[in-house]
Structure formats: C-alpha cells, structure tokens
Amino acid sequence: MNLSLFTILSEFGLDGLHIGEAVKFTAPKAGWKLRGVQVAGWSGFNNTTKAFPSDKNFLIEIRDKDLNLLYKFADAQNGYFLSPTGPVSGVIEIPALPITGDFYVVFYDRASMEILREQDSGIGKSFYFGNGILEPAERTIAATNQTYKVNWMIEALGE
Fold it and tell me: How many helices (H) and strands (E) does the chain have?
C-alpha cells in the first residue's frame, strides 16, 4: 500500500478550502445507524519542539445518495489528530443517524491537518466534493503522465 499525507491546500491552494475529501458508502443492512466517522490523519504536531499546531477547524458532512445534507459537524483538529509519531485514526462520534442505501462522508480538512490517502489501487469510491459536485479523486504523476485513483482513509462506523 502506498500511503501519503494530503491536505486540500497542497492540491488546490486557498481556492480549495471549500473542497472536501468524500467517500461513498453503502449501509450494510436495513435499520443500520451511522454512529461515527474514523479518519486517518495528522495535525502536524512537532515532537522536537513540543509545539502544538494552532487549532483550526475541520468539517464533516454526511450526505445521502443524492448529495442532500443529512448531518454537519465542525471541530478543531488537535482533539482528534494530535500525535507525536504521525498519522492517527481520529474517531468523530455523531448522534445515531439512520441510513439506507448509499451515502457519502465528506471530510473538509480546510488546511487544518493532513488526511492519509492510499495512492495505487483506488477502487473508485473516493472523490473531491465542492459546490455540490463530485469529481473522482485521482492523482496524475507529471513525470510519467500516469493517473492513479486515490482512496481516502475514511471509515463509516455504525451498527
């Protein structure tokens, strides 16, 4: 697995702060409830100087199959992604949300931290989401002009 850290700022600059990393999920059974979102990422804690990054907000949205907003949550990144050794899996709990069929989890890093991505074997369920539009999460290597699908390391937790 080829993993790397990513922030929307590195790809889109300040114009990208309204763009989120989205993953498409399917509820595993009738009556299933989403109870949390797990995101692998890192706030950039500097273990050498022991300096915490300034608190900045990230945003999570839960959207139905038609991209209608079901739930929204914002908080500071250090409470979930602070680690002296690199990426951690931050769990963001949400009130039980009944989900049927397909849905999307959209994570807006808003340059507050970096999200972990897998770059070699994307399965087509990861997207960029901005202005109501989903675009495939892909990365083109300039030197080879090869395009790779990306998997965002986001998991939907429920029962």
Answer: 2, 14
Residue 8 to residue 17: CA distance in whole angstroms = 7
Distance CA 148, CA 139 (A): 5
| pTM of structure | 0.92
The angle subtended at Cα 90 by Cα 38 and Cα 116, nearest 5°, is 75
Please report, in angstroms and rounded to a whole number, the separation of the first and last CA atoms in the chain.
28
Domain ranges of the chain: 3-158
- For residues 82 and 88, give the distance between their C-alpha atoms in angstroms, rounded to a whole number: 8
**Lowest mean pLDDT segment, chosen from 28-32, 67-71, 120-124:** 120-124
12-54 pLDDT per residue, tens: 888 889 999 999 999 999 999 999 999 999 998 877 777 888 8
CATH fold for the domain made of 3-158: Jelly Rolls (2.60.120)
